[in-house]
Amino acid sequence: MKGYQPIACALHDVFEIAILRGQRLWARWETPEGEAREGMLAPLDLRVRDRAEWLLAEDETGAHLELRLDWISSVQPADSADRGWGAAEPRR
Which of 16, 32, 44, 80 has the fewest CB atoms within 10 Å, counting from its CB? Predict the structure, then answer.
């Protein structure tokens, strides 16, 4: 997997707000192996490790995930999917 690419500040804010509000997010991301995934996430915390930012989250099954923020291709609050809220895209 390539080196970390910083994400847009607006997308970082989406994660921080979701963590503070306990809000679930619908997200699409890529695994370190390059596999595409999507699903509901409960964001728990943001961390910095190895010069990259990581989202600690729980998926629909209760499994804990650590997703590098630049692996996430789109995200939107789960309760806004029917309200026309635009998906936030990371900066590439």
Answer: 32
